[in-house]
Design brief:
The structure holds 2 protein chains of 2 kinds. Chain A is α+β, with helices and mostly antiparallel strands. Chain A contains 15 helices and 17 strands. In chain B, strand 2, helix 4 and strand 3 form a beta-alpha-beta unit. The chains are: A alpha+beta, B alpha/beta.
């Protein structure tokens, strides 16, 4: 359409600590309103903030994961504004000196890697909630969320489509949940994005005037909000109108963005260093200590999976989408290797996880860590397929049974008499019977109709209840029919 | 009895000459008798006597320490569960805290008996106590004069012996100036020594709790229980406990007392100048060496202070919005109006003035010129003291240029009121310990204070010098007429 889109994201990641960033108040979600608000969260007179050390470690973990610079000194500042769910009348945030600066994240779009540069990541506290639908004439305030720790992660305007923006958000989501700093519950608002969108004619032009879409808490809304915004901006410019800087809200029901405030209404937040908190100093030793405990990161794992297990980039990405799936996959490989040596073993396991297991998990709304079929059992099942005991189809039957009864693979095979018939003489006997009962098919095949062979195989498989090895059946048929 | 020092009261309690309940009753009766001073904002006889009984039990069981059973009262800036905590403001009329300030808890643990809460300027903003929503406090030496501020209630109460000691807070001189005006001993420790948990904030980087009593030795004794690290205050300094009276019996003859040239300018009242010079000579007679020093940036103290303190206060006072607690205006159409009306009606003139100044100096386009610049100049003032303390141990000078002024004299003229803090603000900006001790009287019978300032964490040395002066003189034992 002749327009170049630039998108930058600001993401609020809720850090998975049990207590708040500046108080001992609990961070549990969904509790009775105001039951989780301590005297500090309520901003009672005489209360003071004390920094929760855990959030610093989490921010350091993130800084290391994105290869950013962890500042030796960062400063908490007060962002002053009045709002009834902001108890102190200011939010403690980081402004001029954030804890993390720089770094980048690689995203994959259509099998191409792209680097998104990160500007900064800073620590801040969340506000409470105003509820307008509880009382007819009054608003209600719930301060349970007030003081919940957030890491705000800001990118450069490096993304050029809604698809890239969503891919970035998903990659970031995978990363922060992977390194264990965010529990990732999007319904509870653990991961919220603001998108800055602007368009321009060509890369030679300066960035266009941006509008910021606030508070997008699902990947779907992120994509549709940006798509709407781009179309709107293109429409404006093509009709010769100007775009003015604004903050907008996305209405998912109407699929449109609406102006919340124009630039001229922007708050003067009167930032200044919070005198109740000392500057945060981080030593090299502290960074090293966190670095030692860093897990292998999603991108590293995906690359390793693709390389060492000879998987496609796509499959490796799916298996490396979260730590639980990656762990499940690697554990299954480890167990299966103990049981059998087989070419393509890892590919078969990958297919089973991404196919049958994922489908069944989805159907039952279960997470992989809660799967009734554990890596040990799946490994055993795969080994029974690889050693010819089970056909792939029988394997699925066994899988279904395992899902329900959690029994051992071999005992299910025995109970149900599912063992594949591999004994040639037995198969030959059955093949002979089927040919004599279906001479017309045999003749059709001999006269060159290949389809007839498949029909015969089908009848033999039916007669054996699927237990005959299909390849062997085919081979014997061909020999018998003199091919 | 009320004229006894804390050490004498302590001895009497240990010897069972009288009980903590008897002492508490005596002082509670005095508080009621002299209620015209308007020093107290809240008392609760039952609560105080209960604490006194507990103290007597401890004394009987020989589990007491020197402070057990000694009465104390708290500036109404410290929150308490037993009494209302108003900060001298309409905004917090009837507010009761669900927790105690750390300092209050510390003194209670030592067995001190709380007699109530003391009047002060609204949110500790003022130098005369005339900014209290609950009316001015009168100076016991002359009831037509102010007691000083913002800890005016504390100073008047101790001066009139309504209580042997009182907590107070100092942001730019709020302990030292009223102590000087009321002829008592007032000490502000190093910033970070006294926990700010439970101390209603005015200007966080300057606010520091301290004590008012009759002598340096008493102050040291109370500091031993009152000060110390508090993990609930991020600016609290973690240092091992110490005996703040350890210099009291030491020979301080070799100490060098620095006299800042800038503190003896033409603004100073002649009677005050004479009294201070006499006090300095007394120190010299005691064997200490007087040397002239310079604090070249001290004249910048007031302008710097009146940028930084209002900036911090404009933010600290934002929580008083009528949403969760405290005063809420009636008759409002919407939320914005509710917050506006609440703050317009709930705050007095001085907090509003400082909120306006603070909001202005932090605003975009002004921040660099005012707030940032003020922080830089603050550093220069700190550097002044660092250089001075290379040459001397203690710095001495006046607390105020003149004695207590008359009620109503300055309240209409904020700038001249702000000037009252000229000599006290530099130590507050630097965060060093400083104190005021009585050193004489004006011809009209009003007390004059000598200011002593020490290097960081050298409260013990500071108190040692003050004590050696109080051994030589009896100004600190003088009491106003008409308090019997």
């Amino acid at each position: 359409m002749g327009w170049l889109v630039s998108i930058g994201l600001e993401t609020h990641v809720q850090l998975a600590t049990s207590s708040k960033i500046f108080s001992g108040g609990a961070t549990d979600f969904g509790k009775t309103p105001n039951s989780q608000a301590s005297v500090v969260d309520l901003a009672l007179p005489g209360t003071l903030p004390v920094l929760n050390e855990q959030v610093v470690e989490y921010a350091m973990r993130f800084g290391l994961a994105i290869n950013g610079k962890i500042n030796k000194r960062s400063v908490f500042a007060r962002k002053n504004y009045f709002y009834p769910d902001l108890p102190k009348g200011y939010q403690i945030s980081q402004y001029e000196e954030p804890i993390v600066e720089g770094g980048s994240l690689t995203i994959w779009v259509n099998n191409n890697g792209k680097t998104v540069r990160l500007t900064r990541a800073h620590l801040e506290e969340d506000a409470g909630k105003s509820l307008h639908d509880i009382y007819p004439t009054h608003s209600a305030i719930d301060l349970n969320r007030a003081g919940t720790p957030l890491l705000e992660i800001v990118t450069e305007p490096d993304m050029n489509s809604s698809l890239e923006a969503v891919e970035y958000a998903k990659t970031l989501y995978e990363l922060v949940t992977w390194i264990g700093i965010c529990s990732g519950n999007m319904q509870e608002g653990n991961f919220r994005c603001d998108a800055n969108v602007s368009i321009r004619k060509s890369p030679d032009c300066p960035l266009g005037v941006r509008r910021e879409i606030k508070n997008l808490n699902s990947f779907k809304f992120l994509q549709s909000a940006i798509d709407f915004e781009i179309l709107w901006q293109v429409g404006q410019l093509e009709e010769g109108r100007k775009i003015s800087q604004a903050t907008v809200l996305y209405d998912a029901n109407k699929n449109e963005t609406r102006v919340m405030r124009e630039k001229e209404d922007a708050h003067d937040y009167r930032y200044f260093a919070d005198p109740d908190l000392l500057p945060l100093n981080i030593t090299n030793e502290a960074v090293e200590k966190v670095a030692q405990d860093m897990p292998e990161l999603p991108n590293e794992v995906k690359t390793r999976f693709a390389k060492t297990y000879r998987l496609s980039r796509e499959d490796a990405s799916l298996l490396g989408a979260n730590r639980q799936t990656a762990d499940y996959f690697e554990e299954t490989v480890k167990q299966a290797r103990k049981l059998i040596t087989f070419d393509n073993l890892e590919k078969i396991i990958s297919n089973w996880i991404l196919g049958e297991l994922f489908a069944t998990l989805n159907k039952n709304s279960l997470k992989i860590q809660d799967s009734p079929v554990d890596p040990h059992n799946l490994a055993k099942l795969v080994s029974r397929i690889c050693d010819g005991t089970l056909s792939s189809n029988l394997g699925k039957t066994v899988f279904e049974q395992m899902w329900i009864s959690k029994e051992d693979v071999d005992s299910i095979i025995l109970q149900k008499g599912l063992k594949q018939i591999t004994d040639s003489s037995e198969i030959e006997k059955i093949v002979g019977t089927i040919i004599s009962e279906n001479l017309h098919l045999a003749n059709e095949y001999k006269s060159g109709k290949d389809k007839a062979l498949n029909a015969l195989v089908g009848k033999i498989m039916k007669a054996t209840k699927g237990k005959a090895n299909p390849q062997k059946v085919k081979d014997i048929l061909k020999t018998k029919l003199g091919y | 009895m009320f004229a006894k020092t804390i050490l004498q009261l302590s001895q009497g309690l240990q010897d069972r000459q009288f009980s903590a309940v008897e002492i508490a009753t005596l002082f509670l009766d005095r508080i009621e008798k002299f209620s015209n001073l308007n020093a107290f904002l809240d008392i609760n006889r039952d609560t105080s006597l209960k604490q006194a009984k507990a103290a007597d039990k401890r004394l009987a069981e020989r589990r007491a320490n020197p402070l057990t059973g000694i009465p104390i009262a708290h500036k109404d800036i410290f929150v308490t569960t037993d009494f209302k905590s108003t900060a001298g403001s309409k905004m917090l009329a009837n507010y009761k805290s669900p927790f105690n300030a750390t300092i209050v808890d510390n003194l209670q643990s030592a067995g001190m008996v709380s007699l109530g809460k003391l009047n002060c300027d609204e949110f500790a903003m003022g130098s005369s106590n005339e900014n209290s929503f609950y009316g001015p406090v009168l100076n016991p030496w002359d009831k037509e004069h102010v007691p000083g501020g913002s800890s005016g209630g504390s100073a008047a109460a101790v001066s009139a012996r309504l209580v042997p000691a009182a907590t107070a807070t100092d942001t730019g001189g709020s302990i030292r100036e009223p102590a000087a005006f009321c002829g008592i001993t007032g000490v502000k420790p190093t910033y970070g020594r006294a926990s700010r948990w439970g101390m209603i904030a005015f200007a966080s980087s300057l606010d520091q709790g301290g004590i008012m009593c009759s002598s340096a030795e008493e102050a040291g004794l109370i500091f031993n229980s009152m000060l110390g690290f508090d993990s609930q205050d991020s600016t609290s300094v973690d240092r091992p406990p110490e005996n703040f009276n350890r210099y009291i019996d030491k020979d301080l003859k070799e100490l060098k007392i620095g006299i800042p040239r800038e503190f003896f300018d033409s603004n100073i009242d002649n009677e005050v100048r004479v009294a201070i010079q006499a006090a300095l000579q007394a120190l010299e007679h005691a064997g200490m060496n007087l040397i002239e020093i310079t604090l070249p940036n001290s004249h910048l103290g007031i302008p710097v202070y009146y940028v930084i303190a209002p900036a911090e206060c404009s933010s600290n006072l934002s929580r008083y919005d009528g949403v969760r607690y405290g005063y809420r205006a009636e008759d409002h159409e919407n939320l914005t109006e509710m917050i506006k009306k609440t703050r317009s009606e709930g705050f007095g003139k001085e907090p509003k003035r400082r909120i306006m100044i603070g909001t202005y100096v932090l605003s975009q386009g002004y921040y660099d010129a005012y707030y940032l610049k003020a922080q830089q100049v603050r550093q220069l003032i700190i550097n002044d003291f660092s250089s001075a303390f290379l040459d001397c141990d203690i710095i001495a000078g006046p607390v105020t240029a003149e004695t207590a002024f008359k009620l109503g004299d300055k309240i209409k003229d904020p700038l001249s009121m702000y000037q009252s803090d000229f000599y006290t603000i530099p130590a507050s900006l630097a965060g060093i310990p400083a104190m005021s001790i009585p050193c004489g009287f004006s011809s009209t019978g009003l007390p004059i204070g000598l200011q002593l300032m020490g290097n960081y964490f050298e409260e013990a040395k500071l108190l040692g010098v003050a004590h050696s002066y109080q051994k030589l003189t009896d100004w600190h034992t003088k009491m106003p007429d008409g308090i019997s």
